[in-house]
Amino acid sequence: QVQLVESGGGLVQPGGSLRLSCAASGSIVSINTMGWYRQAPGKQRELVAIIGGGGTNYADSVKGRFTISRDNGKNTVNLQMNSLKPEDTAVYYCNAEVRTTAWIIKAYPYWGQGTQVTVSS
Question: Which of 7, 32, 96, 97 measures 20 to 30 Å from 57, CA to CA?
Fold first, then answer.
C-alpha cells in the first residue's frame, strides 16, 4: 500500500556527482523520517543519511560529500552525492517511516527496490 520509487543511479567517474531521488506514494497519512541506505558486495547494509523532524544524520564516510534533502509536500527525498569515490559503489535503497492509518500513531518502515551506483574509471 506504500511504494517508494527511486531514480538517478548510474555509472560515474571518481570525483563526479550523482543525484538520487525517491518518491513515496500510496496510503500515506504522514512520513516521520526518510533516508538512504547502501549495500556493497560482500558487506552489510549501512545507513548513508537520514532526515526527519530533528534534523539530519550522515555516515562518517560521506560527511562533507553527500547532502540529503526532503520535500514534505511531495513525499520525496533526494541525495546529492559529490566527490564520489570507488568505495561508494553499492546498491542504494530508499527508506521511509510511514503512518498509513489515521487513528494508528505508529509508523512502519518501507523500502525501495534499490538503485545501482557504480564509481569507476
Answer: 7
